Amino acid sequence: DLRLVESGGGSVQAGGSLTLSCAVFETGRRTRYSMAWFRAVPGREREGVAFIDSELRETYADIVKGRFTISRNNAKSTLDLQLNSLKPEDTAMYYCAAGRYVADRLRVQEYEYWGQGTQVTVSS
């Protein structure tokens, strides 16, 4: 099993930057898993933002491509998301997620494990 704990959210002005982190705590037999960041705002479905697999292959949603960068450190069991050039529409609760058998990389249903979320607020 995995437990995911996010940190690093906060409030910034448009154009600013933040780094989100997700610590991964694994119990039992170690397995390979893919990870991703999602975000959610009230009244809208949770949407995939960025994905990275165990071999460090990355995928981004078009709305964040060129502004956000996902990275992971398998030795330290951490996942990061660097958010640059932030816009007010990036305001959301951001969640990290992990899945063992991910086919559709930014689809919510592919992931078994979720963190509690960290809030990002971008003011204009």
Summed up:
With 124 residues, this protein is mostly beta strands. 0% of the residues lie in helices and 51% in strands. The strands form two sheets. Strands 2, 4, 5, 6, 9, 10 and 11 form a seven-stranded mixed β-sheet that branches.
State the separation between the terminal residues, measured CA to CA: 40 Å
Kindly name the structural category: mainly beta
- What value does the average pLDDT take? 95
- Beta-strand content bin: over 45%
Low-confidence stretches: none
Account of the 3D structure:
- The protein has 124 residues and is mainly β.
- Helix content is 0%, strand content 51%.
- It contains no helices and 11 strands.
- It has strands spanning 2-7, 10-13, 18-26, 34-40, 47-52, 58-60, 68-73, 78-83, 92-99, 113-114, 118-123.
- It starts with a strand and ends with a strand.
- 33% of the residues are buried.
- The model has no long low-confidence stretch (mean pLDDT 95).
Keywords:
124 residues; mainly beta; 7-stranded mixed beta sheet; 4-stranded antiparallel beta sheet; 11 strands; 51% strand; globular
Topology (SSEs and partners):
Elements: E1 2-7, E2 10-13, E3 18-26, E4 34-40, E5 47-52, E6 58-60, E7 68-73, E8 78-83, E9 92-99, E10 113-114, E11 118-123
Parallel strand pairs: 2-11
Antiparallel strand pairs: 1-3, 3-8, 4-5, 4-9, 5-6, 7-8, 9-10, 9-11
